[in-house]
Amino acid sequence: MRIGPYQLKNNLVLAPMAGVTDRPFRQLCRRLGAGLAVSEMVSSNSLLWGSEKTRRRADHEGEDEPRSVQIVGADPAMMAEAARYNVDNGAQIIDINMGCPAKKICNVMAGSALLRDEGLVARILEAVVGAVDVPVTLKIRTGWDPAHRNGVTIARIAEDCGIQALAVHGRTRACGFRGEAEYDTIAAIKAAVRIPVIANGDIRTPGQARRVLDYTGADAIMIGRAAQGRPWLFGLVDRHLRTGERLPDPPLTVIRDLMLDHLESLYAFYGEYVGVRIARKHISWYSKGQPGGAAFRQAVNRCEDVTEQLALTRDFFDRLIERVGLAA
Ligand SMILES: Cc1cc2nc3c(=O)[nH]c(=O)nc-3n(C[C@H](O)[C@H](O)[C@H](O)COP(=O)(O)O)c2cc1C
After folding, report:
1. Is 106 an active-site residue?
2. CATH code for the domain of 82
3. For residue range 174-205, what is the model confidence (pLDDT) as tens digits?
4. How far is CA 168 from CA 65, 84, 137, in A?
């Protein structure tokens, strides 16, 4: 897939997830097969730009190109300013969030709440596209609620405003994360516009990726939650889409080593105090479904020290590997 001047290595995109897709996780997913990884959203409120959180979100050192940074807000001038600020800080693609259902975001009429006001959508898109000379992409839901699925109208507005790719989560704003994603609106959007369309929502396996691509005709797929604790999923999907093969998850020894590397990169990025805390949720995802996982997670959540957290995690996986070895 191509976004402006950038030819991606494949059509697999890591979804932006606040609190998850920090630089270490984006780098990991890209190393393991994602063609593009969108950053966590950055507020368009410039009062927040000096904060530690926003500074970290704008840190792209060593990150693969193209670097896509997501911005969120409801004021065209502020969004334009946020786009310029992030391009000055290394963003090579600006992604606009009109997909987030979070109350914190929607109460200020940003994120998916904007889908209700098509005029405002157009003003924001025009302002941002006009403010920067990098490609601007947009992420939406299928509409405001099941009775107002205006995704096709929004997609046409986006195309007219110069948006260069459109990601669509197959739920409405009102659906939150409930029910199953629907792909009919995504297919209708793909048929209505010429810009690349990225299908998103509930894609968890290589087979689902294939089916969603075929059903919607989309140019690419975006994966969010299924990559948590399973960043190698992108490699499995990539292989399946290219060859039809269905590879198993990597062996536990490989998972252990890439997880320990991931933890080290979190400590380096956040510092030890914050790093240990951020690492907890990733460790929890990696160990989900493994025997003894619940007791292990309790111990990890109590632990405040880097060396101890690493040792606990390594021991847990070493014991799993030993068990599998004995069972073989
Ligand atoms: C923890 C979490 C944080 C998210 N943060 C964002 C965000 O910052 N911006 C955004 O556009 N979507 C955000 N989303 C939505 C995802 O990008 C994606 O659209 C959604 O999870 C559906 O895809 P999935 O079924 O593959 O997870 C978030 C989702 C989750 C679970």
Report:
1. no
2. 3.20.20.70
3. 888 899 999 999 999 999 999 999 999 999 99
4. 22, 24, 11
